[in-house]
Amino acid sequence: MSAINMSRRQFLKTTGILGGGLVIGFSMTGCSSSELPITLVQQGFVPNAFLQITPDNGIRFYCPRDEMGQGVTTGLSTLIGEELDVHPKDMEILFAGVHSDYNNPDFGVQGTGGSSSLKAHYLQLRQVGANTRGLLVAAAAQDLGVAASAISTRDGHIVVAGKQYPYGQFVQTAASLEAPTEAPLKSNAEFRYIGQAFARVDAAAKSTGTAEFGIDIDIPNMHHAVVRRSPVAGAKLKSVDKSVALNMPGVTDVIEISSGVAVVAEKYWQAKTAAAKLSPVWDEVALSKVDSSDLRADYNQAMQQDEGVVDTDEGDVEAGLAAADHIVEAEYWAPFLAHAPLEPMNAVVRIENGEADVWSGTQGIVAAQGLVSRFSGIPVEKVRAHNTYLGGAFGRRGTLTHVIEATEVAVASNKPIHLLWSREDDIQNGVYRPASLMKIKAGVKNDGSITAWQAKRVGGNITPKTLQNMMPALFPGLNDGTIDFMVGLSRDVFAGWMVDHASVEGLYEDYDTDNKTVNHVTVEHDIPLTFWRSVGHSYTSFAKEGITDELAEKAGMDPVAFRLKNTQGNPRLNNVIRVAQQHMLAMQPAEGRFLGFAAHNSFATDVAEIAEVSVIGKTIRVHKVTCIVDCGIAVNPDIVRAQMEGAVMFGLTAALYGDLELVQGAFKQSNFHDYPILKMSEAPLVEVVIIDSGTAPTGVGEPGLPPIAPAVASAVYQATGQRLRSLPLKIA
Asked: For residues 68 and 629, is the Cβ–Cβ distance under 8 A?
């Protein structure tokens, strides 16, 4: 590691958080191998970090981002294939290893999140494809004795005078030439693959069960570990009687580790059964005395008594309120939420002969490598990190405490360890979306103009805990004291000096007004917080769109027309709302069904949603959702539709059911019986309308989620006259 010596100002300037990814501008010299982690086959030619071409015309694409179901392997291979003139289905797609060449351009480190992959790599990977194609054309011109201008390419072949030659025929010559760096890119009109809907490249493997997830890893002599952790976050193990577990069938070790006590056995169920027999005693911490009612009372008190820290202050809000014909003021609540991905957390760690291997589906494989190095004492260059498919993530697989646990157990037991969290472990001992209390006060004139917007959010911040989790991973050689200092500094800064933008993003940006203020009050209870699908937008949209409906009503305007009037300074969102309005006007909902509307911008993408809802007694039923999205060029429209559909279902689960109840510092819910997900019988029809604005791609993994809760709440108001301002949505 190179030494790090930074002032507080420089620290704040070079670190930050972007929806699922940690942005750090530190030098990481010495933290990764200088050699690309690419296995040469058949004397294959490697023109860059992303491609390998073999003499038999095999084309390998090393995907730099992690596939967690969002279709990134298809999307990124389409970018490189477009310019290389190779269909993604004709490539072998592998997960990239650890190397700085695979850093996310938006983050500065190797990580996947924030709906950033297509946006960050759109031009980069197209240029890689174009440069490689240019190099192959130059090699073919030399080998065939023709002018480069006489050569075209098609489907992985050089074409000269109607005759085709596979790219692989020219790799030896290509390896001796200097590759171009700025080969011309295709115009949009020339695209063959970008913008076309075709089957995902991982569809066959996932349909046949051959796709390898972290939970599938099996290596010789592998043992299984289950950890008992404190039900209250932050409490440490005081004592435990290991004798009962040690005498159970298959159990080989009972080991105290940093997060609790681990049971190691020959089989998973043996370890799980034995772990359940343990009766660990835990320290008592401040959180042990906190219930949900106490936490909510703390938030209410902070909202009433604390001014907080200013995030945005534009114009003169008091003058704007004074100029208003109507003033609306309301509070909105969003609870803690777990991620509950289908595949729970897991990792395999093997340590042998001073070297280590780690297998785990993560949102940052470099972090897994760093953690194994740090907690095993093995130099980072001797730790091989193997990524796999991720069985869902939603921000959860950016926190890798399970990798730490697996490493500690592997070191102590001297065995290859497969550590698996149960569903209960993940819901009760995981990391969570922060709870939020939001208050918005806004003014409006009779003509529908918003005169002032005053917003305030109370709750915890994501950044300090993310730094606490990520710094040991990204800087495995950094001592604990320095990390504690950095984390403490970030906690103090965001509590009293500046606002962690992830806490308030989406609360105020979409609608026109010259006068706006946004304040934030940090209230922490030492509950582990992290990114959750669409991050701050997942709750701020609920408050922002709810108050917008109320302003429209005060002005006597249709809520969609009101939004059109107040997005003149936001033309792309305005256009999405306009297109959605056209669809809404054409709808004729059945008797007893009502339409609700919401629109929101997140991750540089604009989305409007129309929810068709009925209310019978106290049951809210969503029958159909129409989703209008402008994400720039839809690289694969089918994947865009799938991501919007998935985000709607994920968001509806949260809107109708998502809630975690704190009882004496521990979360009460444990599995899908009391933390339910939307059932297939409850799933609405989702129609997705894609607007192609012709601009570079923006995010699609998360932007479909923020509008769904406020759209449903809007429809419930139409049906019942009740304004629902708390999530999950409940009829009084």
From this structure: no
Peptide bond before residue 637 is cis, with ω within 30 degrees of 0:
no
Distance CA 526, CA 295 (A): 11
- The answer for residues whose C-beta is within 8 angstroms of residue 247's C-beta and 6 or more apart is none
For residue 170, the 8-state DSSP code is G
How open is the CA angle 59-65-70, to the nearest 5 degrees?
100
Model pLDDT, residue 83:
98
Q: Please, are residues 525 and 667 in contact by the beta-carbon 8 Å criterion?
A: no
Give the total residue count for the chain. 732
Q: Locate tokens 């109607």: which residue?
A: 162
Contact 526/43 with Cβ under 8 angstroms? no
Tell me the angle at which helices 637-656 and 708-720 cross, rounded to the nearest 10 degrees: 50
Token reading at 127:
């240029």
Q: Extract the tokens encoding 625.
A: 């959702």
The dihedral formed by the CA atoms of 463, 468, 470 and 471, expressed in degrees to the nearest 10: 110
Q: Which residues of the chain have pLDDT under 70?
A: 1-34
What integer pLDDT is reported at residue 39 of this predicted model?
A: 75
CB atoms within 10 A of CB 298: 16
DSSP 664: T
Instruction: Please count the other Cβ atoms lying within 10 Å of the Cβ belonging to residue 414.
Output: 10
CB 557 within 8 A of CB 448: yes
3-state class (DSSP) for residue 11: helix
